[in-house]
């Protein structure tokens, strides 16, 4: 993890003094002291920046003056100008400056002795005085530079922080009570991870209510699991409903305009914290306090899992309710690794080591998981009159082994009482039977999650997304504490993990789809799976294949759902009445290991006035060259395949669907291929249902997948194993409504798939939208920025960059770099469409995508024939490599 620069720490201290401390001071002596501290800190900040070049310039000018005066006094004896250096930091330069100041003072003293008869002597003495003054006067004119442009960072939230007035307005609306007033509103400066406020609310003339407000930071340190505020709210609601002494959530304000983060209110529990996490080792805490913590841990771990079924089904993957402890930790580690690859963090060898160790040491534990608090210690419990009244801060909660909470609290307990006595009390209070061999793993797992939050918090400080002095403590306190715990609990441990082969295989298979596309963290055994797991058409891909939940609803970030459809939407549809009604299917795929891929589109247009037609775009890419065939030919009865599949009008291509597998067959002279695509994401229609784009995509499904099969091209045979995106759509399609568009569809496997679309309609409307799919969960983008890299012909693209600003607040940057083959250019209905297969990267993930752009060249009055890096004609092109 990168160390916080001095300039950053000074900037944060200054900001805290100016915005938090100084406004609340009333003591005249303290106010005077602060007014002296602020300029001193400003000067220290200057010394990290503009004061250094100023000092170098002063040394250069002083050396020149020193030599000039010496020559005047000593003539030829002075010799040449002496060598000097202006290298070094501020303190090193200060030593050189101090030495130079002393030498110029001695020379000035000598000059005073001859000044009465030497006219130049007085001039030199004044020059030396002006030289000394120059540093101080120039210093006053330069301004300290806040760390990383802190004073105006582009990621500053457009919304203000939570205020008393905003909160009162929200509460009046939420509770439909205009007589309500907020009489006090204060923030808690000591909380980490989230913001905490305390408010007193008066109802009518006398009734009062004390509330705690739990609010997300505008730059969150964690964007996963219960660290997401809405998920913490729902879990806390379920916990408090069991009678456990946790706060009860009351009012939820999710993504509310006018404030810089989601928040919810909860009842205020009376009591005080018995200690802090970092000070817990040294503080004097009675043994009875620890024994009460043991009792509450036992109570927590015995809450039936069914009490949280609604929360688990809302936020977890399918099958989570049936997990064992072992499979739960496999699931959780996959989720955290995926999160760490998607969301930018500072590099950390420690975290890399911990991931590796944990993945090799998951316990073979077939118990059912229990609810774990994740941060259960003296800094998150309240006591009043010697009794525990509340357990706070549930953002680290999850489901796992009971040993996890016990391992986390053990270092503190052992400083105050015998650990065996604590454990015995836990068991006598009804706690779970324990396996002490699991303690090291569960503690290391707790450390991993905490450190992921820590490196993200430090990263937010260093790039200027967060200016909160609290997070300096990540480096100064939490990092050494948790790193030490992590290395201690993983030292000299057997790393066989005792993991059964079947479970290990489950972990590996979920990561195998992207092997051919270079994901080092996703490498596994795709080829072996193809050999061993034969289905109707060769492979069901075990865990990679998307399995829809029983209710056929896909999760959407924020708690919503979308209908999941089956094969009924993948096959040929009954034609509608419109003349421009069409039904089409598309498959784009790439096998990076073999450098082969393809783009296949079959569309049936049955209602055209001159008779139905088939449009085919059929392109295959290989090291041998590009096979390209596009046509718009009459639709035959033979093209209406018995399986409700699609024919091509000439029998060179067909698409059929069997048992959820999409099978494409190509047969044309010395070109043949059979490609099977299996979905890795839910079959949902996420396209908007309004605006001009709806006249083009009224029913449209874009789904990530993986492909396997075979390809023979010009005598060369390839066994295919790669990534893919397919689409299916039907309804009226008016190609004349578009000036231009962008369609970027890509996948890195189950961890991440993307869709980004922009549409420039002839009604001068411009629409952009998109979404991502991660482990079956859909997250919409509230903003999509598509930058296409265009060749000099202004028609062919060379990939591009897509930036998603998601509804969760995350920002994903996706870079799309073309594979070394020219673009595929199709001309249909007077629109020139360019498709470019690209390698796609996002954070640590790598996959494939199709980067499609169109340009309605001269409104379809001519078909272009020449492109910088694309092929529009039919045939086989050996010179298809991009230039």
UniProtKB/TrEMBL annotation:
GO terms for molecular function: kinase activity. CDD domains: ACAD10_11_N-like. Residues 554-733 form the DUF7065 domain. Residues 144-164 are annotated as: Disordered. InterPro entries: ACAD10_11_N, AGP_Transferase, Aminoglycoside_PTrfase, DUF7064, DUF7065, Kinase-like_dom_sf. Residues 734-857 form the DUF7064 domain. Keywords: Coiled coil, Kinase, Transferase. Residues 189-431 form the Aminoglycoside phosphotransferase domain. This is Kinase-like protein. It comes from Mytilinidion resinicola.
């Amino acid at each position: 993890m990168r160390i916080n620069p001095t300039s950053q720490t000074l900037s944060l201290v200054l900001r805290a003094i100016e915005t938090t401390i100084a406004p609340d001071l009333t003591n005249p002596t303290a106010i005077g002291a602060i007014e002296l501290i602020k300029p001193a800190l400003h000067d220290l900040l200057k010394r990290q920046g503009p004061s250094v070049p100023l000092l170098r310039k002063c040394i250069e000018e002083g050396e020149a003056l020193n030599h000039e005066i010496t020559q005047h006094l000593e003539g030829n004896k002075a010799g040449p100008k002496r060598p000097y250096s202006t290298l070094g930091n501020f303190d090193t330069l200060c030593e050189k400056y101090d030495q130079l100041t002393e030498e110029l003072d001695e020379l000035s003293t000598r000059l005073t002795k001859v000044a009465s008869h030497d006219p130049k002597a007085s001039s030199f003495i004044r020059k030396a005085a002006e030289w000394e003054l120059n540093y101080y006067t120039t210093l006053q004119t330069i301004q300290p530079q806040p760390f990383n442009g802190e004073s105006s960072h582009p990621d500053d939230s457009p919304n203000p922080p939570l205020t008393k007035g905003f909160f009162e307005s929200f509460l009046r609306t939420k509770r439909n009570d205009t007589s309500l007033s907020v009489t006090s509103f204060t923030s808690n400066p000591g909380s980490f991870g989230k913001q905490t406020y305390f408010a007193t609310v008066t109802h009518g003339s006398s009734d009062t209510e004390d509330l705690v407000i739990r609010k997300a930071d505008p730059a969150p340190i964690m964007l996963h699991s219960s660290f997401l505020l809405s998920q913490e709210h729902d879990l806390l609601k379920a916990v408090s409903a069991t009678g456990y002494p946790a706060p009860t959530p009351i009012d939820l304000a999710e993504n509310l305009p006018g404030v810089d983060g989601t928040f919810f209110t909860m009842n205020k529990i009376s009591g005080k914290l018995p200690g802090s996490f970092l000070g817990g080792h040294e503080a004097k805490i009675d043994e009875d306090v620890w024994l009460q913590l043991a009792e509450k841990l036992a109570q927590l771990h015995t809450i039936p899992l069914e009490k949280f079924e609604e929360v688990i089904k809302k936020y977890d993957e399918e099958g989570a309710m049936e997990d064992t402890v072992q499979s739960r930790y496999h699931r959780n580690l996959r989720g955290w690794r995926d999160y760490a690859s998607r969301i930018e963090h500072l590099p950390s060898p420690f975290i890399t080591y911990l991931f590796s160790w944990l993945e090799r040491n998951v316990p073979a534990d077939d118990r059912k998981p229990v609810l774990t608090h994740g941060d259960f210690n003296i800094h998150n419990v309240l006591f009043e009159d010697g009794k525990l009244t509340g357990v706070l801060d549930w953002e680290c909660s999850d489901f796992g082994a009971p040993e996890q909470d016990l391992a986390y609290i053990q270092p503190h307990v052992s400083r105050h009482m015998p650990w065996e006595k604590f454990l015995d009390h836990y068991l006598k209070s009804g706690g779970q039977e324990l396996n002490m061999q699991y303690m090291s793993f569960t503690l290391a797992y707790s450390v991993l999650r905490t450190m992921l939050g820590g490196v993200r918090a430090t990263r937010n400080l260093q790039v200027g997304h967060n200016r909160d002095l609290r997070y300096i403590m990540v480096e100064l306190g939490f990092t050494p504490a948790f790193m030490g715990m992590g290395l201690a609990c993983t030292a000299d441990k057997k790393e066989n993990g005792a993991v059964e082969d079947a479970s290990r295989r489950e972990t590996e298979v979920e990561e195998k789809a992207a092997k051919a596309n270079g994901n080092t963290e996703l490498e596994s055994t795709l080829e072996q799976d193809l050999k061993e797991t034969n289905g109707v058409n060769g492979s069901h891909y075990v865990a990679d294949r998307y399995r829809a939940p029983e209710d056929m609803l896909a999760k959407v970030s924020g708690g919503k759902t979308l209908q999941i459809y089956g094969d009924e939407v993948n096959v040929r549809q009954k034609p509608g009445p419109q003349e421009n009604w069409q039904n089409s299917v598309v498959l784009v795929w790439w096998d990076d290991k073999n450098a082969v891929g393809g783009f296949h589109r079959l569309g049936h247009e049955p209602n055209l006035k001159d008779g139905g037609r088939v449009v085919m775009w059929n392109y295959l890419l290989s090291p041998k060259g590009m096979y390209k065939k596009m046509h718009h030919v009459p639709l035959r009865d033979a093209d209406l395949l018995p399986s409700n599949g699609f024919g091509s009008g000439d029998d060179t291509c067909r698409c059929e669907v069997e048992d959820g597998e999409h099978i494409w067959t190509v047969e044309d002279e010395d070109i043949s291929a059979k490609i099977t695509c299996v979905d890795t994401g839910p079959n949902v229609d996420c396209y908007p249902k309004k605006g001009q784009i709806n006249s083009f995509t009224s029913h449209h499904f874009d789904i990530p997948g993986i492909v396997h099969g075979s390809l023979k091209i010009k005598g060369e045979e390839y066994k295919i194993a790669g990534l893919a995106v397919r689409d299916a759509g039907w309804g009226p399609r008016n190609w004349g409504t578009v000036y231009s568009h962008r369609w970027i569809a890509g996948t890195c496997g189950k961890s991440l798939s993307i869709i980004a679309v922009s549409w420039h309609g002839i009604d001068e409307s411009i629409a952009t939208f998109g979404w991502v799919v991660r482990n079956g969960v859909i997250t919409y983008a509230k903003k999509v920025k598509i930058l296409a890299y265009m060749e000099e012909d202004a028609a062919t693209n060379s990939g591009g960059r897509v930036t998603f600003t998601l509804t969760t607040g995350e920002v994903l940057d996706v870079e799309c770099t073309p594979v070394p083959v020219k673009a595929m250019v199709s001309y249909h209905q007077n629109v020139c469409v360019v498709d470019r297969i690209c390698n796609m990267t996002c954070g640590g993930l790598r996959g494939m995508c199709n980067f499609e752009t169109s340009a309605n060249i001269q409104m379809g009055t001519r078909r272009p024939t020449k492109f910088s890096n694309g092929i529009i004609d039919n045939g086989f092109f050996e010179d298809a490599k991009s230039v």
